[in-house]
Design brief:
This protein has 216 residues and is an alpha/beta fold. The chain has two domains: 2-130, 3-Layer(aba) Sandwich (Rossmann fold), CATH 3.40.50; 136-215, Arc Repressor Mutant, subunit A. 51% of the residues lie in helices and 14% in strands. The chain has ten helices and six strands. It has a six-stranded parallel β-sheet, sandwiched between helices. Strand 4, helix 4 (88-95) and strand 5 form a beta-alpha-beta unit. Helix 8 (168-175) crosses helix 9 (179-192).
Length: 216
């Protein structure tokens, strides 16, 4: 797995590099600003990029904009965005394209090494990984959304786990139910959110976006 890191904090950048290399992962470049990051992606064609939201010079949204541009140039690139705080708007900006291979984690999650590595592998595999804290904050707002307020408590729970990037099997294990039961709950979620029959992976992304769009 080839990885490019974009993180302006030198200590965190070095720490991420050492952590990933200790797991026998190939960090091909570790950059401190958006322009260096894009150049590294063009040069090395990594499988995944780990990108800070806030980078020089303004420390606002340079990281996210660079991640969006990197995916435009290299559509197969997986991106795991790191942020010090919950910034759901930035998560929406990344996920609005309706594609997988995207993740959004709080930086504190890096300290939980296995969770961080699991999220990284999930986005490389084409899935999504949304920080549980982002999901938790979004859950407090779902009742104001038409359609979302029609979901049962169990359906909301299933949708929350979908938003964390879990597949049906993982959701079934977490809730201690059968995969068939999870499938029925997801179908109910799609129906209540008025998501017309189409490719299920697209509908899963759209359902997750209904959470994220509440932050706008």
């Amino acid at each position: 797995m080839r990885i490019v890191i974009a993180e302006d904090d030198a200590l965190l950048r070095e720490g991420l590099t050492l952590l990933l290399r200790a797991e026998s992962l190939d960090v091909v470049a570790a950059t401190g600003n958006a322009s260096e990051f894009l150049a590294a992606v063009d040069a090395h064609r990594p499988e995944v990029a780990v990108v800070d939201v806030r980078m020089p010079p303004t420390f606002t949204d340079e990281g996210v904009l660079a991640a969006v541009e990197a995916r435009r140039r290299h559509p197969g690139l997986a991106v795991l965005v790191l942020s010090a705080h919950v910034e759901q708007t930035f998560a929406t900006e990344l996920l609005v394209g309706g594609a997988g291979g995207l993740g959004y984690l709080l930086k504190e999650r890096v300290g939980h090494v296995q969770q961080f590595l699991d999220a990284l592998r999930r986005v490389v595999a084409g899935g999504t990984a949304i920080d549980p804290e982002v999901v938790a904050q979004l859950l407090t707002r779902v009742h104001a959304d038409r359609g979302l307020d029609r979901l049962s408590p169990r359906e909301l729970e299933v949708l929350a786990l979908m938003a964390e990037g879990m597949g049906n099997g993982a959701i079934a294990r977490r809730l201690v139910v059968t995969e068939g039961a999870v499938h029925k709950h997801i179908r109910a979620v799609f129906a209540k959110l008025d998501l017309a029959p189409a490719d299920d992976s697209d509908r899963r992304v759209t359902a997750v976006l209904r959470y994220l769009e509440r932050s706008g």
